[in-house]
Amino acid sequence: MSVKILYIHGFNSSPLSMKAELTKEYFALHYPNVEIICPQIKSSPFKAIDQLESIVQTLHDNTWCLIGSSLGGYFASYLAEKYRVKAVLVNPAVKPYLLMSDYIGWQLNPYTNETYQVQAEHIDELKSLEQQKISENLYQVMVQTGDEVLDYRLAAEKFRNSQLIVQQGGDHGFINFADMLPNIADYLAINKSNTQ
Protein backbone atom coordinates (compact mmCIF):
# COMPACT_ATOMS: atom_id res chain seq x y z
CA MET A 1 0.00 0.00 0.00
CA SER A 2 1.19 3.50 -0.73
CA VAL A 3 1.03 6.29 1.82
CA LYS A 4 -0.89 9.42 0.98
CA ILE A 5 -1.15 12.58 3.07
CA LEU A 6 -4.22 14.75 2.73
CA TYR A 7 -3.22 18.31 3.62
CA ILE A 8 -6.22 20.47 4.57
CA HIS A 9 -5.60 24.20 4.52
CA GLY A 10 -7.42 26.75 6.64
CA PHE A 11 -10.05 29.42 6.12
CA ASN A 12 -9.33 31.82 3.24
CA SER A 13 -6.21 29.87 2.40
CA SER A 14 -5.09 27.56 -0.39
CA PRO A 15 -2.63 24.86 -1.47
CA LEU A 16 -0.25 27.77 -2.12
CA SER A 17 -0.03 28.68 1.56
CA MET A 18 3.39 28.63 3.17
CA LYS A 19 2.79 25.54 5.32
CA ALA A 20 1.27 23.59 2.43
CA GLU A 21 4.22 24.47 0.18
CA LEU A 22 6.77 23.59 2.86
CA THR A 23 5.03 20.25 3.47
CA LYS A 24 5.04 19.35 -0.23
CA GLU A 25 8.70 20.34 -0.60
CA TYR A 26 9.82 18.40 2.48
CA PHE A 27 8.10 15.16 1.56
CA ALA A 28 9.14 15.42 -2.11
CA LEU A 29 12.76 15.68 -0.97
CA HIS A 30 12.83 13.14 1.86
CA TYR A 31 9.91 10.79 1.09
CA PRO A 32 9.42 10.96 -2.69
CA ASN A 33 7.05 7.98 -2.71
CA VAL A 34 4.61 9.70 -0.34
CA GLU A 35 1.98 11.63 -2.26
CA ILE A 36 0.71 14.90 -0.81
CA ILE A 37 -2.83 15.70 -1.87
CA CYS A 38 -3.74 19.31 -1.13
CA PRO A 39 -6.97 20.43 -2.79
CA GLN A 40 -8.47 23.90 -2.83
CA ILE A 41 -11.13 23.45 -0.15
CA LYS A 42 -14.71 24.40 -0.92
CA SER A 43 -15.97 27.46 0.92
CA SER A 44 -19.01 25.84 2.58
CA PRO A 45 -18.29 23.40 5.44
CA PHE A 46 -20.59 20.62 4.21
CA LYS A 47 -19.25 20.91 0.65
CA ALA A 48 -15.70 20.87 2.02
CA ILE A 49 -16.35 17.68 3.99
CA ASP A 50 -18.03 16.03 0.99
CA GLN A 51 -15.02 17.00 -1.12
CA LEU A 52 -12.53 15.60 1.41
CA GLU A 53 -14.49 12.41 2.01
CA SER A 54 -14.71 11.76 -1.70
CA ILE A 55 -10.92 11.95 -1.93
CA VAL A 56 -10.44 9.49 0.93
CA GLN A 57 -13.11 7.10 -0.34
CA THR A 58 -11.99 7.19 -3.96
CA LEU A 59 -8.48 6.18 -2.98
CA HIS A 60 -9.50 3.73 -0.29
CA ASP A 61 -6.66 1.28 -1.03
CA ASN A 62 -4.08 3.63 0.41
CA THR A 63 -2.77 4.31 3.87
CA TRP A 64 -4.05 7.79 4.67
CA CYS A 65 -2.66 10.41 7.02
CA LEU A 66 -4.00 13.91 7.56
CA ILE A 67 -2.41 17.29 8.21
CA GLY A 68 -4.81 20.12 8.96
CA SER A 69 -4.13 23.77 9.70
CA SER A 70 -6.54 26.08 11.53
CA LEU A 71 -10.03 25.36 10.14
CA GLY A 72 -8.40 22.52 8.22
CA GLY A 73 -7.47 21.05 11.60
CA TYR A 74 -11.14 21.09 12.58
CA PHE A 75 -12.06 19.25 9.38
CA ALA A 76 -9.15 16.84 9.92
CA SER A 77 -10.43 15.87 13.37
CA TYR A 78 -13.82 15.02 11.83
CA LEU A 79 -12.16 12.82 9.20
CA ALA A 80 -9.73 11.23 11.66
CA GLU A 81 -12.57 10.08 13.91
CA LYS A 82 -14.71 8.84 11.00
CA TYR A 83 -11.97 6.94 9.17
CA ARG A 84 -9.72 6.14 12.14
CA VAL A 85 -6.60 7.66 10.61
CA LYS A 86 -3.77 9.64 12.16
CA ALA A 87 -3.87 13.42 11.96
CA VAL A 88 -1.46 16.24 12.69
CA LEU A 89 -3.27 19.44 13.66
CA VAL A 90 -1.43 22.77 13.42
CA ASN A 91 -2.92 25.65 15.44
CA PRO A 92 -6.31 23.97 14.95
CA ALA A 93 -9.67 25.66 15.26
CA VAL A 94 -11.66 23.99 18.03
CA LYS A 95 -14.93 25.94 17.97
CA PRO A 96 -14.83 27.81 14.65
CA TYR A 97 -18.58 28.33 14.66
CA LEU A 98 -18.13 30.81 17.52
CA LEU A 99 -15.86 32.96 15.35
CA MET A 100 -17.52 32.62 11.97
CA SER A 101 -20.30 35.11 12.69
CA ASP A 102 -17.65 37.84 12.32
CA TYR A 103 -17.10 36.73 8.72
CA ILE A 104 -20.69 36.50 7.44
CA GLY A 105 -20.94 38.19 4.06
CA TRP A 106 -18.66 38.41 1.07
CA GLN A 107 -15.09 37.19 1.38
CA LEU A 108 -12.10 37.39 -0.94
CA ASN A 109 -9.57 34.57 -0.84
CA PRO A 110 -6.19 36.35 -1.08
CA TYR A 111 -4.54 33.33 -2.72
CA THR A 112 -7.11 32.50 -5.37
CA ASN A 113 -8.96 35.84 -5.73
CA GLU A 114 -12.18 33.84 -5.40
CA THR A 115 -15.11 35.82 -3.99
CA TYR A 116 -17.68 33.86 -2.04
CA GLN A 117 -20.22 34.31 0.72
CA VAL A 118 -20.05 33.06 4.26
CA GLN A 119 -23.67 32.41 5.17
CA ALA A 120 -25.43 31.99 8.49
CA GLU A 121 -26.13 28.32 7.78
CA HIS A 122 -22.40 27.70 7.53
CA ILE A 123 -22.19 28.31 11.27
CA ASP A 124 -24.71 25.52 11.89
CA GLU A 125 -22.84 23.26 9.48
CA LEU A 126 -19.61 23.82 11.37
CA LYS A 127 -21.27 23.09 14.70
CA SER A 128 -22.69 19.81 13.41
CA LEU A 129 -19.19 18.65 12.45
CA GLU A 130 -17.78 19.10 15.96
CA GLN A 131 -16.24 15.99 17.47
CA GLN A 132 -17.15 15.73 21.14
CA LYS A 133 -15.18 12.55 21.77
CA ILE A 134 -11.52 12.58 20.83
CA SER A 135 -9.53 9.39 20.32
CA GLU A 136 -6.27 9.98 22.17
CA ASN A 137 -4.07 7.89 19.87
CA LEU A 138 -4.95 9.59 16.57
CA TYR A 139 -3.51 13.08 16.98
CA GLN A 140 -0.36 15.08 17.15
CA VAL A 141 -1.38 18.65 17.95
CA MET A 142 0.99 21.60 17.60
CA VAL A 143 0.07 25.01 18.94
CA GLN A 144 1.92 28.25 19.54
CA THR A 145 0.92 30.48 22.43
CA GLY A 146 1.32 33.63 20.30
CA ASP A 147 -1.50 32.60 17.94
CA GLU A 148 -3.28 35.91 17.30
CA VAL A 149 -6.34 34.33 15.65
CA LEU A 150 -7.24 31.36 17.86
CA ASP A 151 -6.92 30.77 21.60
CA TYR A 152 -4.33 28.00 21.77
CA ARG A 153 -5.65 26.95 25.19
CA LEU A 154 -8.83 25.55 23.63
CA ALA A 155 -6.83 23.11 21.52
CA ALA A 156 -4.44 22.34 24.39
CA GLU A 157 -7.42 21.43 26.57
CA LYS A 158 -9.38 19.44 23.99
CA PHE A 159 -6.35 17.43 22.90
CA ARG A 160 -4.63 17.26 26.28
CA ASN A 161 -4.43 13.44 26.12
CA SER A 162 -3.05 13.39 22.59
CA GLN A 163 0.56 14.03 21.58
CA LEU A 164 0.49 17.74 22.34
CA ILE A 165 3.26 20.20 21.49
CA VAL A 166 2.91 23.69 22.95
CA GLN A 167 5.50 26.23 21.82
CA GLN A 168 5.86 29.61 23.46
CA GLY A 169 5.41 32.65 21.24
CA GLY A 170 4.93 32.17 17.53
CA ASP A 171 1.79 33.12 15.64
CA HIS A 172 -1.20 31.67 13.80
CA GLY A 173 0.93 30.83 10.76
CA PHE A 174 3.15 28.70 13.06
CA ILE A 175 6.62 30.21 12.99
CA ASN A 176 9.40 27.75 12.09
CA PHE A 177 6.90 25.18 10.80
CA ALA A 178 9.60 23.71 8.55
CA ASP A 179 11.51 22.62 11.65
CA MET A 180 8.54 20.50 12.72
CA LEU A 181 8.23 18.48 9.52
CA PRO A 182 10.70 15.71 10.55
CA ASN A 183 8.70 15.37 13.78
CA ILE A 184 5.47 15.16 11.78
CA ALA A 185 6.88 12.43 9.55
CA ASP A 186 7.99 10.49 12.63
CA TYR A 187 4.58 10.79 14.25
CA LEU A 188 2.80 9.61 11.11
CA ALA A 189 5.20 6.63 11.16
CA ILE A 190 6.30 7.34 7.63
CA ASN A 191 9.66 5.83 6.89
CA LYS A 192 11.50 5.16 3.70
CA SER A 193 11.06 1.40 4.00
CA ASN A 194 7.25 1.51 3.91
CA THR A 195 7.00 3.99 1.08
CA GLN A 196 8.89 2.02 -1.57
UniProtKB/TrEMBL annotation:
Matching InterPro entries: AB_hydrolase_fold (IPR029058), UPF0227/Esterase_YqiA (IPR008886)
SUPFAM superfamilies: alpha/beta-Hydrolases
This protein's name: Esterase YqiA
Organism of origin: Thalassotalea algicola
Lineage summary: Bacteria, Pseudomonadati, Pseudomonadota, Gammaproteobacteria, Alteromonadales
